[in-house]
Amino acid sequence: MRFVDKLVDKQRVSQRSYKVSHICLIFWTCLVLVGGRSLGEVNVGDMNGLFNTVSNAPYSHSGLNTGNSIMANGDSAILAVRSYKCSDGTCAASHSMLYTHGLYGEVKCEEDNASCVLDGENARRGMKVQGTGSGTLILRALTFDKGYADGGGGVYINFGVVDLKLCIFSNNRATGSSDYGGGAIFVVDLVTLNAYGTSFNGNIANSGNGDDIYNFGGTITIHNTCPSPYSSNTPIQGSALDTEGTEGGDKYSYSGCSICGAGYYSDDGCQACQQGQGSSAGSFGAGSCVDCSPGKYESSGVCSPCTGSTYTSTSGETSCASCTGGTWANTDNTGCTSDLTCAVGSGQAAAGGTCEVCPVGKYNGAEDDSQCIACPAGKFLPNTGSTAVSDCEACPVGRYSVEHAAVSECTACSPGKHNANTGATLESDCLDCSTGKYIETEAAETCVFCPTGKINPSTTGSSSASICSDCQAGEDASNGSTECANCVAGKYGPAAGLGCFDCGRGKFISTEGATSETQCSLCPIGKSSPATGLPSSCESCQLGRYAPAEGYAQCAICDPGTACEEEATEMQSCSAGSFSGAGAGTCTTCSEGTHASADESSACVTCNAGKYCPQGATEELLCPKGKYSNNGAGSCISCSAGSFSDSPDGPTECLTCDAGTFCPSEATTEEPCPAGRFSNFGAGTCTECGPAAIAPDPSSPSCLACDANQVANANRTECVCQQGFYTGLVANEATPVPKGVSPDTPGMTLQTLDLLPGHYRTNSNSTEILPCLNGFHCVGGSDPSSYCAEGYTGPLCAVCSSGYAAIGAGESLSCNQCSALSTATVALGVTLIVSLLSAVLFYRFKEKSLVRGRLQSFHSAISVASEKFAKVQSVIKIVFSYFQVVGQLGFLFGIKFPPLYSRVTSFIGGIVSLDFISFLPLGCMAPTDFYSSLLAYTALPLVLSACLIGYYVFLSKKTDEKSVSTRNKIFETFLAITFVLLPSVSIKVFSTFACHHFDDGTSFLTVDYSIDCNASTHSLYRLYSGLMVLLYPVGVPFMYWYLLWRRRHLLSCNHRMKEMEMSEDRALKSALKEREANEEKHNTLKALSFLYGSYEPKYWWFEVFETLRKLALTGFLVFLAPGTAAQVLFSLIMCIGAMRVYSVNRPFVDDFNDKFSEVAQWQLYFTLLAALAMKVNLDNENLQDRRYFDILLTLLQFVPALVLTIKKLLEARAATIQRKVGALAGHLDNVIGGEGKEEEGLELSEVEIPVTSASTRRSFTNVVSTREGRSLSKQEVELGYEAVSKHERRKGW
Questions:
Q1: Four-residue CA torsion sign, 761, 762, 767, 771
Q2: pLDDT tens digits, one per residue of 552-592
Q3: For a Cys-Cys bond, which of 797, 947, 1064, 1173 suits 788, CB 3.0-4.6 Å?
Q4: What are the annotated disulfide bridges (predicted)?
């Protein structure tokens, strides 16, 4: 397989990175070639020597240790057979045992069998070769084992020529990534590697790049031939190699290049040594064959020593010569000698003869020319080469040896003779058998008697039993007798030569010379004959024995449990309660503590522990509970207080009551101490625990002390925390209860924390107590599964249960149970919303001429209301903007505002944001969540806007006044929609990114706690919301700015220039007139009046600023340190900045609007300040104080603006009355004076409110009377009123 393309690319990079290495290598090679020295062969015996000999890094870098570089180029380092480890000495580096730099020569083992092991100990590679100069580095007969490195666990080669001969690579590992490999060998660049007779096994590359070899730019050849001197041998092919990038050769493991045997040497094969020479196995070259030295000779290539009287006196002999002429070989067999000195244990066989080992029977203890000495008489010597007389052994009984016999065994006495002594020296020591005896064998110690009934009366030295003669019937001969005698009384002789026999046991005979067994009589009953051959009558049976029949050899012993009187003929049984042993004459009554339960008892059995036996007892009696007995008790013992016995089988002891129990006297069981009491071991009563200690369980051995802030309950069974504490994560440690936990519940633990209503935690192990969004949603308690009120569930109880629908959100969330009424409510609400929108659109765009009948007057009323609405539009926008911000603060800051404030602001905020849908139980109609709300809030405005813009484009082709007016209304409606919906839509969009992270690792959407922020679906909606951010919070303000900026010259009307030329009031009036003129001239300009109409011409851009202010205080706050006091602080800073902009610029046309907006800013400021106080817990007062705070905060939202509005209305009313009075006075002058003209500068058409009140009549009378200088008549007044009334009706007052 060719080298992969990726390695070619790596090689190019590698070649560039090695330029510096090339230069350094060339420089070092030059130094070696010029200044090198050759030491020839260097012997290495340990790891330090190997390091200092082979490692020759010229400088210390990359953590290298610099060796002594003993080996010069061309040298041979010869390693002693052993294992070399870094743990035994110094190594080159943490990654390599040896590190050569430009070195060539040979590193080899002294034995050509790879028995020199470089053991990497699974920590570093064996060797790193960084170039070989101008020569070849040969590694021969080395084993690289357990190497460990990123590349080349055995050997790492970079540049040069390396030959591997007879090496072994085993259990090496390359640990590097895909850029590395070669468990055994890693060849990097410009390398020529040859391997001869080298084997691989157990190597691994983690990267998969060649478990055995990884070639990264060199030439590698695996030869299938043996290296010199085994070139003629054929290696054994092993398993295939696992290589990467290796080309050429047979990629197999090779071994088995044989070593030449003894008598041969290696030189292009195994060559035989010359005759007379020998060599050891594995020898190299003809010089390894050496001549056999004197005293040795060559045999089959091996030098063997001469033996006996043979010798070689010169080297190189092939055989040994024999000594002749009375000479023999000297001690090293290098020649012959006549000087005889025999070693101990040997001697001359004859005078002047050669030395020979002393034969059996002789010894020699001197080292001289003497002969061996025979053992003394009476001794023998079975071994040769003996050195002392003590080696001679005495002749055993029945044998003898004479002087100078020199025998290996003493001579045996002949049959008929015997010798009872050892060390006999003469044959006469063997004595003849006496009369009455004989012996048939030799070497006898004693002679034997003639058999019973036979005699040898006269012959001595008999060697056969035939010499003994028979006695007559009725006669016998004792041992050694020479005469026969009659059988004595008690015996009989039935035949000749048989001797006498005893009458059997149980028989007797009183006469001598009896010849028949029939002459023996049986013993009568009650008697016995215990021995054979009794001469008279039998003996009477003694006490305890009996003979129930005739012929008893011995009176039988009475069985245990029976008794026998003297001369008894039978046994008498012992009754229960008594006993007897074997051979008893009487029965014995059982003593106390023993019993015999049956007749014929051989012994009274000792009563077992737990039982008792009175005297003569026939059975064991059980001790009752509460008592006990030991073995052999005659009665039971009562258990003392503090102990008990409860065994139903007879208590054997009273057990000590365990700690935690008590036992009264004669207790039958341990009574557990009740909870709240304790006892030590052996207590008769239990003790109550102290006031600050408890015994929580029955059977308590001691009381447990309560921790600080804990006391025992009345029953002393539980340590309860003092009020305001609970047992936390650390057992028995009282921890102050956190806010939201009942301070009055005693004995709480972390798992049983009693939450106050309005609070929540994720699980029973949580220490994070969270306020619920709405206090009524959470009922509190100690069970996490029951925190939520009915209809509520989920985190913070802010999710409606199944069968309930959500109305509102956040603090104002209410979960209503679905019913038929819910469906009707949704239908009615949707109908009202659609009807309202339809009515607004209808009367917004319907022409007056198309309205007929009663709708005509209604339309007129709507028109009047529209005109009045236009005048207060700025105030309404300010109110809308204010509540669009304030209504979202609780959600944005994560603050639970007081309930009254929350309900009011949430309700108004929902109205001004047109969030009517949230007040309908849509969840009863279909499943709804934040995602559906998000889609609706972002998509419906787009659909509505598309419809309006489509209609606008349709009308844009028409230029008539009606179409232009309709287009302007369409565009104004579009802008109004964006104004109203932008904050709420923006908050919806930004809310997608606001998640509440709980301490149990869960995360839920803050605006809808049913949505998991960790779900993959939420990631998609985040992406969608990101697009909506560009469309709404970014796109709408940009659209405002672009629309206004394009027409800035028509809107600004050089207002600022005019202020420089005239007074501010005149400049403002002039600019406004010019803007009105521009609106008449440019018919589409009026469509933008919703954006600029409330502001002075020079502040044509202010609606953009106001929009950004609202967005900054609503949606953008989601990203500013959410949920922290810093977030509230940021909003305060932005509020103050906006207040400064409003107060400095005062942008509204109407001064009242400037004041009104400033009051709104101050209201917002104080509301934010209150939020900051709540965030840092400054409102942590009592309930009454919090109520006052709630009312004050609620009033703050309305009172300042309401006061300013009332003041404005009163001022407007006063001004109107004044204008009406002036107008009426002028009109009356005209009527009375008949001049037909009105007062200058005061037209009745300007009077907007009819004058009908009594106060107006009085004012009118006073003014006119003052002007005329007289009092008006009643007719004049009525006439004036009539004229005014007509004018009012004409003007529509």
A1: negative
A2: 878 888 988 999 998 898 999 999 999 998 889 899 999 99
A3: 797
A4: 788-797
